[in-house]
């Protein structure tokens, strides 16, 4: 009853001219990323309804979040039988579902577990909300996004403008580390990060930061290495208890909120994301992270970048093969997955 009254109040306020709200689903809402991400989305004014899905545990998360005094209504869904109801009519679907990386695990290890999870959820999106923006967090993103693309293609509803790999954490980390090193507030720093979302496929463009920095070459190399391996830094620091969850949730919320702002009609929204594109900088790689311009329809174009520095060009050349292999692996799995 309380949820119903809250929904009616939200609809009443929206009808009186406040900004439209959206229906957002978090698939994997009971996990280490899903719970803090759901908390942040509950406090986001553009979220009208928040749907929580997982194999178990969402009822408790919903009960907890529903006590927070915002107009966002929260509903819980559990198990395959309720996936369709969770996704019906959703505008944005955020997918952190899957297992986290543990010490000693490679992203190939993650692939064996998370590939089927992402494929199944992508099929659910195709069946219940084929026009939704889909933001994939589940690692390895270099492969899981191509998996989702192939599943959506087979379902006849693939729109490359609305499928994103969330690489915002690489940007958040780069902003933090470069800001600290250059004596600039991390909140003011903006570092474009292109390529992929694992190890040396992560390419931070420290030559193109805003504000500009004057870091020496040895510092640039050290920071680049730290940004590329920051995930391992967290995994090792947590000593077997988890991976980057809080920072990932904050970065995912940043990306989700940018999508919602664009969907709500705001212009000039730009976020780095791993998307299908044919930009010259991608050099034939079908999926590649770039600064993406967002509007109501999804990707509307790409923000311009300057030429890479010699060091960045060297890094790009050295990672192209690995990223191409990750993409191919995901495509092949998506094409063969039993729908």
- How many angstroms separate the termini? 38 Å
CATH topology call of the largest domain: Rossmann fold
- How many structural units, i.e. domains? 2
Fraction in helix: 40-55%
Mean pLDDT: 93
Subunit structure: Homodimer.
InterPro entries: L-lactate/malate_DH, Lactate/malate_DH_C, Lactate/malate_DH_N, Lactate_DH/Glyco_Ohase_4_C, Malate_DH_type1, NAD(P)-bd_dom_sf
Catalytic activity: (S)-malate + NAD(+) = oxaloacetate + NADH + H(+)
Enzyme class: oxidoreductase
Protein topology:
Blueprint: H1 2-15, E1 22-27, H2 34-42, E2 47-54, H3 58-65, E3 73-78, H4 83-87, E4 92-95, H5 107-128, E5 133-136, H6 141-154, E6 163-165, H7 168-182, E7 193-195, E8 202-204, H8 217-228, H9 230-237, H10 246-263, E9 269-276, E10 287-295, E11 298-302, H11 310-336
Helix pairs in contact: 2-10, 5-6, 6-11, 7-8, 7-10
């Amino acid at each position: 009853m309380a949820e119903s009254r809250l929904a009616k109040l939200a609809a009443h306020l929206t009808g009186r001219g406040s900004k439209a709200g959206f229906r957002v689903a978090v698939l994997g809402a009971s996990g280490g990323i899903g719970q803090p991400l759901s908390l942040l989305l509950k406090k986001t004014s553009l979220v009208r309804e928040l749907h929580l899905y997982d194999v178990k545990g969402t009822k408790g998360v919903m009960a907890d979040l529903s006590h927070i005094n915002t107009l966002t209504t929260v509903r819980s869904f559990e198990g395959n039988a309720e996936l369709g109801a969770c996704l019906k009519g959703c505008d944005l679907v955020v997918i952190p579902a899957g297992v986290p990386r543990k010490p000693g695990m490679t992203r190939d290890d993650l692939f064996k577990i998370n590939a089927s999870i992402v494929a199944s959820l992508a099929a659910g999106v195709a069946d219940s909300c084929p026009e939704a923006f889909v933001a994939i967090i589940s690692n390895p993103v270099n492969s899981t996004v191509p998996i989702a693309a192939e599943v959506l293609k087979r379902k006849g509803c693939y729109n490359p403008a609305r499928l994103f790999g969330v690489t915002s954490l690489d940007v958040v980390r780069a902003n933090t580390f470069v800001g600290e090193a250059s004596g600039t507030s991390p909140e003011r720093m903006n570092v474009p990060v292109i390529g992929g979302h694992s190890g040396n496929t992560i390419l931070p463009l420290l030559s193109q930061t805003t504000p500009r920095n004057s870091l020496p070459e040895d510092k640039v190399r050290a920071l680049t290495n730290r940004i590329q391996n920051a995930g391992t830094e967290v995994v090792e620091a947590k000593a077997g208890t988890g991976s980057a969850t809080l920072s990932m949730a904050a970065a995912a919320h940043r990306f989700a909120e940018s999508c919602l702002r664009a969907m709500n009609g705001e212009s000039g929204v730009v976020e780095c994301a791993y998307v299908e594109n044919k930009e010259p900088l991608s050099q034939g790689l079908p999926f590649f992270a770039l600064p993406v311009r967002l509007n109501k329809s999804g990707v509307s174009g790409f923000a311009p970048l300057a030429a890479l520095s010699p060091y960045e060009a060297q890094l790009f050349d050295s990672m192209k093969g690995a990223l191409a292999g990750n993409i191919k692996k995901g495509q092949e799995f998506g094409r063969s997955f039993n729908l």
